[in-house]
Amino acid sequence: MTMTMTIRKATIWDTADITHMWSAMQTEIAIPYRTADNREMERFYFGITARLQRNDWHILIAEVNGRPAGFIMGNILMYEYGNSNIIGNCDHLFVKPEYRGSGIGSKLIEELNNWVKACGAKIAEFTTVYDEKLIRKWQHRGYIPSQVIYTKEV
To answer: What does pTM read for this prediction?
Structure first.
C-alpha cells in the first residue's frame, strides 16, 4: 500500500487525536511526576483547544493515508533580554512508533521552523527528555544542547 503523508495545521476536530498521541508520548518517555491519567488528559485536551485559538501557538498534525501519525506544538516566546528576543519554542513532538523513520518528524520540525521564522524568530528551541541518542539526533540537525532541567517532588 502506498503511504500518503500530509502535514496540516490542526483544527478543533484534531484535539482528541492529539490528546491520545500526547498520552502515548507521556507513557513512552515516563517523566517522573507526570502521568497521563484521565484528569491530565482532560486538562491537556482543554489546553489544546485554547491554544488552537491563539496566534502565538502553532499546532500541526501529520497524517498517513488520512490517519493521525504524529503532531508538533510550538509557540513564540518574547524576551526583553538576550541576543534574540523572539524565540520559537517546541515542547511537544511525537510520531507514532509505526511511522518513525519515515520522515514525518523531520517534516513536522521543518514546518514548525518555517512558522517560527515567519513570526520573526531567529532561534528555535526544542524541549525533550534527556537521552544521549536524542542529543546526537538533535545535534545532527544542527541544534546544540543548551539547558538541563532537574525535577524533584516537594
So the answer is: 0.86
29 to each of 22, 36, 129, how far by Cα in Å? 11, 11, 7
3-state SS record for the chain: CCCCEEEEECCHHHHHHHHHHHHHHHHHHCCCCCCCCHHHHHHHHHHHHHHCCCCCEEEEEEEECCEEEEEEEEEEEECCCCCCCEEEEEEEEEECHHHCCCCHHHHHHHHHHHHHHHCCCCEEEECCCCCHHHHHHHHHCCCCCCCCCCCCCC
What would the pLDDT profile of 102-138 be if each residue is shown by its tens digit? 999 999 999 999 999 999 998 888 887 777 888 888 8
Smallest CA-to-CA distance from 44 within 32, 56, 59, 62 is with 59
